[in-house]
Amino acid sequence: NDIGATVDSNGKITFENSTGKAGSITVNVKKEADNQYKELEKNFTLTLSYHVPTSQPTVSGATKNESGWYTGVVTITAPEGYLISYSNDLIGNAWNETVTVNTDGVNSKKVYLKKGNEISDAISFESIKIDAAAPTNVKIDYSTSFFEKALETITFGIYEAKTINVTLTATDVTSGVDYFTYDIGNGDVVVRKADFTKNENGVAEYTFQIAAEFRNKVKMSATDVAGWTSELTETEHYLVVDSISPVLDVKYDFTGSKNTLDTYYTNDDVTVKFEIKDDNFDLRSADPVFMVGSMKIALTWVEDKTEGVWKAEQLLSGDNTYNLSLTFSDASNNE
Question: For the whole model, what pTM was predicted?
Answer without folding.
Answer: 0.70
